[in-house]
Amino acid sequence: MPLQIQNLVNACVRPVGLGVGAASGGWRAASTSAFNDDAGNSTKPHVVLDGNKYHVVGVLTALMPMIADYVTYVAQLPSLGADILQKLIDLLRLFNARSCHLVLGARAMNLAGLKTITAKHLALAAQCAAFVAALVPHLSATLKRLLPERQQVLLKEMDKLLADLNAHELEIYLKLVAIMKERLDY
Fold first, then answer.
1. What does the alpha-carbon distance between residue 112 and residue 136 come to, in Å, rounded to a whole number?
2. Between these two residues, 38 and 82, which has the higher pLDDT value?
3. Nearest to 144 by CA among 163, 159, 127
């Protein structure tokens, strides 16, 4: 994963300068400095969150800057916070639903021309779901600080999203176990 993605993850865990009207602090500063830095092109095979290493796929290199933008918009436009939060939740639900359909529903075979969905594909999908699930509580905590109290009721939707992500991850692990059991039966 590129360094800028790790910087965005770090900014999520330890947000700074994300007060109302903060134009250049926190998430955006982390991503901007990483994109402008020559070292931003370096890669690691994983992203670290809460001390756990997650091997993630390229879609998260697009998803993390989008998440960062939504959080920045909530900080800069508190009157639109509820609408922005709803769009962020919709984005994360779409990620979860599409990855579930592509991997568990075997739609990736049709769309990407794969012959089969391998254990490697399932393991990477599980790692991505686990990463986003680990990120959601940090997002909730940051958004709770940014949103006016009357808009914080929407954060309950983040809890539902987290349950969906955890269920998706469990389904993937069950599929992995079924594949391993099938191979052992031969």
1. 29
2. 82
3. 159
